[in-house]
């Protein structure tokens, strides 16, 4: 918005233009002076005054009237070259000239002002629209706050603009103190911040007239009589229209901030709900996984105790084997659960050490106990395989979980192949894969089997095993996936870091 | 030799059940999915069904309902601890009894025996409504509203009689609070399990069944009339 300086400038330009036009007209008319009637210059000299009024407004019109009066009198009313007016008729001409010019200037300047107001109002509403447009957008609270200060800063060009919000961690029953949430423009000095966050019961004066600090405008953001925050604009001079605009904008900003805060609260509540749901899903998965082997163990043991005499030696052996296998399964589940808690509590700390691949496989088989018969597992490692640089208790757990899953989902005697090679396309990583001859995993389930809730996914109960495998692999900076290219069975692949190969001396 | 259909998806539990039940002299059939179970009930006509509620492909409650559409075979449901709501749903949908996992063979056997006997009663009843009911040592004359235990007349109010008659009609089956209240008190009832506590207490007094062996309380679920109470199982088997 143009200030008073602009108005002066316009008046000066108007006067200059008016004088220039007048001078030209005087020169032109002087050439024809002998042939002119006395009234003609009066008519012609209306022109510079009107031009001046259009540019500079009514004051220039007045100046035009004066200048035109003088020029008319001096050059075109006899005796020429003096300001003396001899005949009363000429006096009348002069007076009529001045009155006409003044009236015309008045009318023209009014028209001009009306047009200016219209233009300004359009511009204001456009700017208000621009300001407010982003307020209705889908912004997060932080984005919204920074948008508000930037918009004010860009529009009014003050030294700085700051937005203050109540400090969140205060006791809600206490009068909350305000803190600077965000600002735009020049950096805030310590003194500025001090003056903004007047604590200890100091009142910060609000309003458009600045309050205690000169040239400062502080506006409260209020929604339904409840303060939401405060907008402070430093070193700005506002026209009344701009004040109105700023006030309107602040009201809209208050609504937007309030809405964004409510939405953020709702999001937080939903997040908590999600965590709750996750917890109970974990509990459900864990209790189901634990109960299943327990049920067979108890059934088998009670059979052995109660109908022992009627059991053949084969039945007895089978029941005992079942009990042992299910106990192993239970033990694995318990360690998986403990690991899961470690992951969840963030207590997982990697202790990488070098270990050979076949050692890792043996360790995993040891963890499996009799769950997957050792004869079913074949191991193949490429010759250039480096040592693995891993936290091997964790990675053997990963391998055991993947093997157990393969064993459970494939036919009882189906072969399971474990292979390792330097990770193609991922230098420094080793790719380990486990292939089985089971029914495979349908494409839609391939990501879900690694999730905690994939109870019924993949045609078998993955339970927690693969979810834990994923967490451990990712803790090593690797990743785990189901190979989509195999046509028969399933191939689970994961990568873990390998020891850097020492280049052979040249 | 009773024929038992076991419906479960866990191979190890199936194996343990197969060995244990066969050793007791039962004939075992196995179904690994809900649809397989319904089919086998129709084709193989087992004497009793053991149904795991936690099957992966179908809801166990749904299977109960589908079996009940064409068969009165007794169903004993296997369910997880703490799954009371599902147990009640299964019982309301036609299951006769339930066993909570993990369970001992003695408990399962006892439940199967009661269920088998109840199945025999139910099948012997036939469509023509009987005028008298015999459940163990209980004799109930539905026409004259008279009940006797060991041949001794019981002085019952009409509500007490209705309750006893209902349980005797479903002897061996676990009847949920909801089922009993709806039938004995009327369609507007269903949640007033405190009524049942009062009436079963009075009934037990009159039946000389203070420990609730004949009229068993199934905590949180309902009541079951056990016509020939089992001797208490050994404590080690819970």
Task: Tell me the number of strands of chain A.
Answer: 11
Instruction: Summarize model confidence as the mean pLDDT of chain B.
Output: 84
Report strand order across the widest sheet of chain A: 6-8-9-11-10
Number of distinct helices of chain B: 8
Strand content of chain B: 15-25%
**Helicity level of chain B, as a percent range?**
40-55%
Largest sheet geometry of chain A: 5 strands, mixed
Can you identify the CATH superfamily of the largest domain in chain A?
Histidine kinase-like ATPase, C-terminal domain
Oligomer state equals heterodimer
CATH architecture of the largest domain in chain A: 2-Layer Sandwich
CATH topology-level fold name of the largest domain in chain A: Heat Shock Protein 90
- What is the topology, as strand order, of the major beta sheet of chain B? 2-1-3-4-5
Q: Considering the protein shown, what is the CATH homologous superfamily of the largest domain in chain B? A: Response regulator
Describe this structure in words.
The complex is a heterodimer of chains A (506) and B (238). Chain A has helices at residues 4-31, 39-44, 46-56, 58-76, 88-133, 141-156, 190-196, 240-306, 313-344, 357-368, 392-409, 465-475; strands at 160-166, 178-185, 216-223, 226-234, 353-355, 377-381, 388-390, 416-422, 429-435, 480-482, 491-497. With 506 residues, chain A is α+β, with helices and mostly antiparallel strands. In chain A, strand 10 and strand 11 form a beta hairpin. Chain A has 3 domains: 4-131; 138-261, Beta-Lactamase, CATH 3.30.450; 353-497, Histidine kinase-like ATPase, C-terminal domain (Heat Shock Protein 90, 2-Layer Sandwich). Residues 199-203 and 454-461 of chain A have low confidence and may be disordered. The longest helix of chain A is centred in the middle third of the chain and has 67 residues, at 240-306. The radius of gyration of chain A is 44 Å and the shape is rod-shaped. Chain A starts with a helix and ends in a 9-residue tail after the last strand. Helices cover 54% and strands 13% of the residues of chain A. Chain B folds into 2 domains: 3-124, Rossmann fold (3-Layer(aba) Sandwich); 129-225, Winged helix-like DNA-binding domain superfamily/Winged helix DNA-binding domain (Arc Repressor Mutant, subunit A). Chain B is an alpha/beta fold and 238 residues long. In chain B, 42% of the residues lie in helices and 21% in strands. The model of chain B is unreliable at 232-238 (pLDDT under 50). Classes of the chains: A alpha+beta (506), B alpha/beta (238). The A-B interface holds A 287-288, 291-300, 302-303, 306-307, 310-311, 315, 318-319, 322, 325-326, 455-456, 461 and B 10, 12-13, 15-17, 19-20, 22-25, 54, 56, 78, 80-82, 101-106, 108, 237.
């Amino acid at each position: 918005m143009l200030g008073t300086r602009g108005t002066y400038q316009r008046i000066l330009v108007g006067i200059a233009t008016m004088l220039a036009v007048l001078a030209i007209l005087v020169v032109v008319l002087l050439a024809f002076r002998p042939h002119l009637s006395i009234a003609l210059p009066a008519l012609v000299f209306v022109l510079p005054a009107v031009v001046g009024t259009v540019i500079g407004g009514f004051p220039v019109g007045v100046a035009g009237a004066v200048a035109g009066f003088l020029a008319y009198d001096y050059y075109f009313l006899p005796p020429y070259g003096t300001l003396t007016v001899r005949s009363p008729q000429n006096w009348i001409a002069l007076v009529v000239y001045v009155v006409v010019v003044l009236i015309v200037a008045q009318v023209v300047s009014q028209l001009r002002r009306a047009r200016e107001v219209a233009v300004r109002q359009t511009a204001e509403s456009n700017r208000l629209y621009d300001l407010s447009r982003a307020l209705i957008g889908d912004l997060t609270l932080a984005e919204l706050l920074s948008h508000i200060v930037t918009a004010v800063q860009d529009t009014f060009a003050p030294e700085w603009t700051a937005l203050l919000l109540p400090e969140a961690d205060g006791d809600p029953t206490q009068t909350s103190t305000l803190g600077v949430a965000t600002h735009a423009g020049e950096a805030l000095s310590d003194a500025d911040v001090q003056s903004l966050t007047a604590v200890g019961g100091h009142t910060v004066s609000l309003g458009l007239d600045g309050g205690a600090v000169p040239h400062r405008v502080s506006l409260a953001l209020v929604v339904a009589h409840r303060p939401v925050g405060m907008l402070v604009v430093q070193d700005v001079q506002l026209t009344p229209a701009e004040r109105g605009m700023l006030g309107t904008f602040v009201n809209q900003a208050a609504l937007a901030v309030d809405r964004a805060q409510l939405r953020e609260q709702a999001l937080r509540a939903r997040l908590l709900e999600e965590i709750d749901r996750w917890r109970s899903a974990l509990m459900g998965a864990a209790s189901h996984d634990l109960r299943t082997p327990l049920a067979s163990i108890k059934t088998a043991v009670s059979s052995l105790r109660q109908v022992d005499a009627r059991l053949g030696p084969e039945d007895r052996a089978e029941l005992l084997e079942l009990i042992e296998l299910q106990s192993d399964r239970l033990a694995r589940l318990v360690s998986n659960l403990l690991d899961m808690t470690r992951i969840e509590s963030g207590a997982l700390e990697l202790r990488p050490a070098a270990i050979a691949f076949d050692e890792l496989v043996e360790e995993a088989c040891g963890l499996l106990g009799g769950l997957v018969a050792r004869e079913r597992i074949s191991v193949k490692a490429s010759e250039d395989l480096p040592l693995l640089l891993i936290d091997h208790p964790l990675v053997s757990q990963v391998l055991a979980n993947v093997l157990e899953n393969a064993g459970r989902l494939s036919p009882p005697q189906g072969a399971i192949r474990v292979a390792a090679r330097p990770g193609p396309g991922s230098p420094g990583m080793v790719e380990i894969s486990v292939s089985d001859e089971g029914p495979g995993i349908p494409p839609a389930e391939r990501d879900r089997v690694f999730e905690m809730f994939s109870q019924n996914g993949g045609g078998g109960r993955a339970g927690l095993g693969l979810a834990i495998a994923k967490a451990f692999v990712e803790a090593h900076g690797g990743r785990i996936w189901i190979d989509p290219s195999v046509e028969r069975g399933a191939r689970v692949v994961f990568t873990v870091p390998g020891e850097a190969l020492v280049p052979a001396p040249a | 030799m009773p024929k038992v259909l076991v419906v479960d998806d866990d191979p190890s539990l199936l194996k343990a059940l197969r060995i244990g039940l066969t050793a007791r002299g039962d004939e075992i059939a196995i179904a690994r999915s809900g649809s397989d179970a319904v089919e086998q009930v129709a084709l193989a006509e087992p004497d009793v069904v053991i149904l795991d509620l936690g099957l992966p492909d179908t809801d166990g409650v749904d299977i109960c309902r589908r079996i009940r559409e064409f068969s009165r075979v007794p169903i004993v449901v296997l369910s997880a601890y703490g799954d009371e709501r599902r147990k009640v749903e299964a019982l309301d949908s036609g299951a006769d009894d339930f066993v909570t996992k993990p369970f001992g063979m003695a408990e399962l056997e006892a439940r199967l025996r009661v269920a088998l006997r109840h199945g025999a009663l139910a099948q012997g009843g036939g469509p023509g409504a009987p005028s008298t009911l015999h459940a163990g040592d209980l004799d109930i004359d539905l026409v004259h509203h008279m009940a006797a235990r060991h041949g001794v007349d019981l002085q019952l109010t009409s509500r007490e009689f209705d309750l006893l008659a209902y349980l005797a009609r479903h002897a061996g089956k676990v009847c949920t609070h909801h089922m009993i209240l709806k039938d004995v008190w009327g369609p507007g009832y269903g949640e007033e399990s405190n009524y049942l506590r009062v009436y079963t207490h009075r009934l037990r007094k009159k039946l000389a069944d203070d420990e609730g062996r004949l009229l068993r309380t199934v905590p949180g679920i309902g009541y079951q009339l056990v016509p020939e109470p089992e001797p208490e199982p050994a404590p080690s088997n819970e």
